[in-house]
Amino acid sequence: MIGSDQKYAAELLMQGELVAIPTETVYGLAANALNEDAVINIFEAKQRPKFDPLIVHTHDVSEFEKFAIIESDLVYQLAERFCPGPITFILPKRDIIPDIVTSGHETVGLRIPNHQLTLDLLKRLSFPLAAPSANPFGFTSPTTALHVQNQLGEKIPYILDGGKCEVGIESTIVKVVDDEVEVLRLGGISVEEIESVIGKRVKRVKTSSSNPAAPGMLSSHYNPGVKVEVGDIEKLLSEHRNQKVGILAFDNNRYESFENVTEAKVLSPTGSLSEAAQNLFSYLRDFQNSDIDILIAEPAPAKGLG
Ligand code: TXA
Ligand code: MG
User: Fold this and answer.
1) Which of ligand 1's atoms lies nearest the C-alpha of 169?
2) Residue ranges, CATH 3.90.870.10, the chain
3) What distance in angstroms lies between residue 182's CA and the mean position of ligand 1's atoms?
4) Which atom of ligand 1 is nearest to the CA of 111?
5) How far apart are the CA of 43 and the centre of ligand 1, in A?
6) Which pLDDT score is estimated for 104?
7) What spacing in Å lies between the alpha carbon of 286 and ligand 2's midpoint?
8) Which numbered atom of ligand 1 lies nearest the CA of 28?
9) What's the gap in Å between 215 CA and the centre of ligand 1?
């Protein structure tokens, strides 16, 4: 069921049930992070492998110390600037966080989502919320309540509707090690923004299935259910002349009229990186049910959110 009854959502969560929650990045599939049985339901509903740890959501930085050990002031500097917001901190965990949440790792991911409905919900609760993105494992993340309903509706008693996610891509995941900031996953806060706060370069940790610094960063991820190739649109179009092609362009809408193009979408006609991020998962989903053989996507400019 979809609705905006925050009190009902809180009651369900207190009973150990699952509730999908809105955040500024993507919708999350939430459960009481301190209740192992509730957390197991998340893995089951998502069909998520148990080796992939969950992010724990709280409403204030003052809560972080309850769940993790903060050794570097850089965490507070970054939190002061970006929280609530699309950043997740990987920190040494305290015992109160069950191993199932962190997949047995000694660290926990903490984040304060920037969405009023969910912040109010978190304030109402006496526990933090473990929440991965509310999509079946490996598929595109949801940015509206309806996206959640379509994929997981039958498995979740309640979807708290907070409208369309403003950022549209997941949080940036950072780990502070020996006063260096490592970025494990790119997301809603750019590397440049982080560097401007800490006054030095960050380390980009390249993750892969064989080097799972952020264990969820597998080689197949965000699968929209259709073959996707990313690169120069015209070059790729010439390679797929005999196929029905969908186009996901960054800012240019001239591909609609090309001969074998079934449908073309533009992430941001004005070339805005934030608008493109907001539309990315939603547009990928639109191609999921369309009658194309391949989706050709253009990379966004490689700076900031791009
Ligand atoms: O924006 C977001 O971060 C959204 C919203 C719902 O908050 N959540 C999200 O969760 O993207 P999920 O589960 O789809 O992705 C979390 C990523 C996974 O790649 C996971 O492996 C990584 O965070 N992660 C979680 N805890 C970790 C830890 N202790 N060490 C390393 N990586 C961790
Ligand atoms: Mg996810």
Assistant:
1) 1
2) 2-204
3) 15
4) 7
5) 13
6) 94
7) 18
8) 6
9) 8
**What spacing in Å lies between the alpha carbon of 216 and ligand 2's midpoint?**
7
Q: Which residues are placed with Cβ below 5 angstroms of ligand 2, an ion?
A: 133
Q: Which ligand is nearest to the CA of 67?
A: 1
Give 193-235 pLDDT, tens digit per residue: 999 999 999 998 876 555 556 666 666 778 888 999 999 999 9
Closest CA to 5 of 156, 162, 160, 164: 160
Tens digits of residue pLDDT in 123-148: 999 999 999 999 999 999 999 999 99
Looking at 3.40.720.10, 1.20.120.140, 2.170.150.70, 3.90.870.10, the CATH number of the domain 2-204 comes to 3.90.870.10
Mutating to test ligand 1, I would choose from 147, 170, 186 the residue with most ligand atoms within 8 A of its C-beta, which is 170
268: pLDDT confidence band, cut at 50, 70 and 90?
Answer: very high
Asked if residue 39 lies in contact with residue 99, where contact means CB atoms within 8 angstroms, the answer is no
Q: Is 24 in the pocket of ligand 1 (CB under 6 A)?
A: no
The span from the CA of 223 to the CA of 208, in Å, is 16
